[in-house]
Design goal:
single chain, 227 residues, alpha/beta, Rossmann fold, 2 domains, five-stranded parallel β-sheet, four-stranded antiparallel β-sheet, 11 strands
Length: 227
Amino acid sequence: MLMKILVVEDEIKTGDYLRQGLSEAGFVVDLARDGLDGLHLALTDAYDLAILDVMLPGIDGWAVLQGIRRAGKDMPVLFLTARDQVQERVRGLELGADDYMVKPFAFAELLARVRIHLRRGSQAKESEYLRMANLELDLMRRRATRSGKRIDLTAKEFALLELLLRRQGEVLPRSLIASQVWDINFDSDSNVIEVAMRRLRAKVDDGFEPKLIRTVRGMGYVLEIAE
């Protein structure tokens, strides 16, 4: 999948140079010429990384970064600016930037830094999400979606689905589910697990394909793609 980068740069030559160089390196690049346009793009589209100048028409790069972080966007942000004072670099990092480069710059170094941040970002995302087919669990925001549609889960249902996703393909006995999700010793007379699993299946599988949650009679439950 192609990585998408947002460049916010008002210097025409620098902006065009960055767009061309990053495009030739295999990235999809959007270029904004002022801070307001840059912030609008950052908030309305999905980017893997943003490169910001500090001095921009409309609003400056500091304000763009603050708007990105206030909106909960955690993509890596790299400042590329002529402002080289130490306090400027510190301010950028304190506001939530991931890197700070000073103009003039070597494109090879910029590209290397971009690739490092994208690699770190993709590794972090992998650890924050659990997936099977079109089901996704966002562990940081405690959200579940199926085919992009939000599924409202209780805390116990979320914990139960997380366990199933972490052990997908394994048949999980009721005793293990009880100890992992309810932190109780399994009571064979209790139907709490059956009730919870029935409710979870209704939310996760009803109206969606493929079906994922399956009961293995006499053994437990498994999350897998039904054949």
